[in-house]
Design a protein that fits this description.
It is built from seven helices and ten strands. Strand 2 and strand 3 form a beta hairpin. 30% of the residues lie in helices and 27% in strands. The protein has one domain: 3-Layer(aba) Sandwich (Rossmann fold), CATH 3.40.50.620. The radius of gyration is 17 Å and the shape is globular.
């Protein structure tokens, strides 16, 4: 017999950065019985095989998807990447997603930046897909606390040294980290102050264990590398 609840569920493709906000968005979507997450959508720097912005090795992003039990739709971006090239790659990826995964909607882990949300809405207007923002508008101090208390574990992979101490690159995203942030820094780094790699939490079937590598300064940002730990 067909499960009617299953039949009416919205099929959602989640934009995946490898960080805590994406991971928490996945968890929130997983808690909704009317939603079925059908895949993760990630962009990566084709020259370095690392996730765009966060600088995470692509192999670790793949491990995240495996741990979440979801297919990963990878979008290679040239380096440097113009807006036109980015938008063309995204359009091609969404066409592929429609063929392979048949999504009804695309979800994003944005928190409060209106210009980013407006950009997404404008660019997605002709796709026929609904847009979801599962963690939008939650006060970021509360959001950070909820993530940590629920067991989400992440490492800082990239930070802006003009906004926060370089020594925090590679740190664990936990209560101690939040206490060390300058008062002007958003607790979730939504203004680009820092980015993370989410390696464990209730959205995963198992942890994605990693070993911390070297920390370097590149293009005005501090990056800490993480490498998959031997199983």
């Amino acid at each position: 017999m067909t499960d009617l609840n299953q039949a009416v569920r919205t099929r959602v493709l989640l934009s995946w950065s490898s960080g805590k906000d994406s991971a928490w968005s996945l968890y929130q979507l997983q808690q909704n019985p009317k939603i079925e997450v059908v895949g993760l959508l990630t962009t990566f720097n084709q020259a370095f095989d690392r996730s765009a912005i966060h600088g995470v090795r692509l192999e670790l992003v793949r491990a995240q998807a495996e741990s979440a039990g979801l297919p990963l739709l990878e979008i290679p971006l040239p380096w440097p990447c113009s807006n036109e090239a980015y938008e063309r790659a995204m359009a091609e990826a969404l066409d592929r997603a429609k063929r392979e995964l048949s999504p009804d909607a695309v979800a994003f882990g944005d928190l409060f930046l209106e210009d980013i949300r407006q950009y997404r809405e404008e660019r997605m207007a002709d796709t026929g897909l609904e847009l979801l923002f599962p963690i939008w508008g939650i006060p970021t101090d509360e959001l950070a606390e909820h993530m940590i208390e629920a067991g989400l574990q992440a490492h800082v992979t990239c930070l802006d040294p003009s906004k926060m101490p370089e020594v925090l690159s590679g740190a664990s995203f936990d209560k101690d980290f939040i206490k060390k942030l300058p008062s002007v820094v958003d607790p979730c780094g939504e203004n680009g102050e820092f980015h993370t790699f989410a390696w464990n939490g209730p959205m995963y079937q198992k942890p994605v264990t990693v070993i911390q590598g070297e920390t370097v300064t590149r293009d005005g940002f501090v990056y800490t590398d993480f490498i998959g730990a031997p199983q």
